[in-house]
Amino acid sequence: MEAYWRYIKVCLTLLSIFLLSTGSKSQSVASDKQKNDGIIECVFIDSPEFAGGRNAMLKYLSDSTKYPKTARDAKIEGKVFITFVVTELGYLEDVKVLKWLGYGLDEEALRLVHNMSRWTPGKMRGKSMSVKYNLPIVFKLGN
Prior knowledge:
Oligomer: single chain
Number of helices: 4
Largest sheet: 3 strands, antiparallel
């Protein structure tokens, strides 16, 4: 029984490392399957990715953001958290705001995500699958 709990701790540690290494961007899934012999198998998902990778996404967001006048005038800065599903074909569906800022920044964040190109889908055991993804979009005024 002690070996069983040690194995669970190792799986949870590996899951924590995986989630931390992917940042706050993705809700990666780890599922536990109980086999007849009492061994638990950890299954991880390769996170979906913006076409061209993280740097390409940051460039897209930087180049495409239109800071709303009301937010600029009120000197509002912060993060809008967007959630969506990257389908097994790389399309974005069910796009919603998780954390609002107001002053038109939420609408701008939604516009940015809706205008993104297809993503590389998430995979589990080499097979493409739909994955829920959380994306913080940072709004910061220049000096």
